[in-house]
Specification:
294 residues, alpha/beta, Rossmann fold, 6-stranded parallel beta sheet, 3-stranded parallel beta sheet, 10 helices, 11 strands, 41% helix, globular, binds ligand LMY7XDAE, binds magnesium ion, multifunctional enzyme, oxidoreductase
């Protein structure tokens, strides 16, 4: 049976370290990190993620700046808000919750966030630097950073290993594959046009599943002893639950956990670490700001 990687517990340990560092920063410089969380519209899932982020800020001593905009907000108004946050010296990190409503151009909006405050690491220049050998972005995207941190904390070495990323989204799949490449893995990306994905996944020592397809990766697709990091958070109907649904990953956990060496659960794996990496990036942004302005 695989070792189940407890993302919630690992996240908790890192959070208490972040809280300690924030206390020190505050004592020494009289400043606390500030994070602006911008949300447009009222998608239930996005609202819930934003609530989690704001609550986590409060718990760790990060000042959160809440910007809630209506679904119909114009691109110009949203960008004006971003510019105001760029100019606010108490804000060290800015994130715009994704996805945005269809009428807004995500790439345009994200490229207006100051590079030094881009704690999601989604600014095209930060992504570009991630793709370049010998260059480092100011911030790494939170979910891919969470995946690497979970592997490292579990003692899984990446260098020279075969890694497969399932999915090629801008938020997870693409940056995760770039991070694995930077860590010297041999990386393949499997996506909706890949024929026989199972034959490629079966060769992988490390699998990062970020396809958004409930339980698509079967136990028979996993190489014995592989490390499996499941980014999927899919709601599937479950009449036995009060809510009427339950969350499952992109991996069939019951099957894969019998074959893998390590595996993350859903919920309680990558999700809590994603928010923790955001808090860590915000602390990094504040530290950098203080170093440049003292
Ligand atoms: N601006 C951004 N937008 C989005 C990001 C992002 O990193 N930045 N990622 C996702 C959503 N996301 C954070 O925003 C996120 C998703 C899931 C979790 C999480 O903790 N999941 C829990 C289960 C939660 C539940 O019970 O509903 C888990 O896996 O244990 C955190 C953050 C898209 N948008
Ligand atoms: Mg859009």
């Amino acid at each position: 049976m695989a070792t189940v990687i407890d993302g919630k517990a690992i996240a908790q340990t890192i959070r208490s370290e972040i809280a300690d560092e924030i206390r020190l920063l505050s004592q020494k410089y009289g400043k606390v990190p500030g994070l602006a969380v911008v949300i447009v519209g009222d998608r239930k899932d996005s609202q819930s993620y934003v609530r989690m982020k704001r609550k986590s800020c409060a718990e760790l001593g990060i000042k959160s700046f809440d910007v809630d905009l209506p679904e119909q907000v114009s691109e110009a108004e949203l960008i004006k808000k971003v510019h105001e946050l760029n100019a606010n010296p108490d804000v060290h990190g800015i994130l715009v919750q994704l996805p945005l409503p269809k009428h807004l151009n995500e790439e345009k909006v994200l490229s207006e966030i100051s590079l030094e405050k881009d704690v999601d690491g989604f600014h095209p220049l930060n992504i570009g630097k991630l793709a370049m050998k010998g260059r480092d972005p100011l911030f790494l995207p939170c979910t891919p950073k969470a995946c690497i941190e979970l592997l490292q904390q579990s003692g899984v070495s990446i260098k020279g290993k075969r890694a497969v990323v399932v999915g090629r989204s801008n938020i997870v799949g693409l940056p995760a594959s770039l991070l694995l490449l930077k860590a010297d893995a041999t990386v393949s990306i499997v996506h909706s046009h890949t024929s026989q994905p199972e034959s490629i996944i079966r060769e992988a020592d490390i699998v990062i599943a970020a396809a958004g397809q409930p339980m698509m990766i079967k136990g028979s697709w996993i190489k014995p002893g592989a490390a499996v990091i499941d980014v999927g958070t899919n709601a599937v109907d479950d009449p036995t639950k009060k809510t009427g649904y339950r969350l499952v990953g992109d991996v069939d956990f019951a099957e894969a956990s019998k074959v893998a060496g390590w595996i993350t659960p859903v919920p309680g794996g990558v999700g809590p670490m994603t928010v923790t990496m955001l808090l860590k990036n915000t602390l990094e942004g504040a530290r950098r700001y203080i170093a440049q302005n003292n």
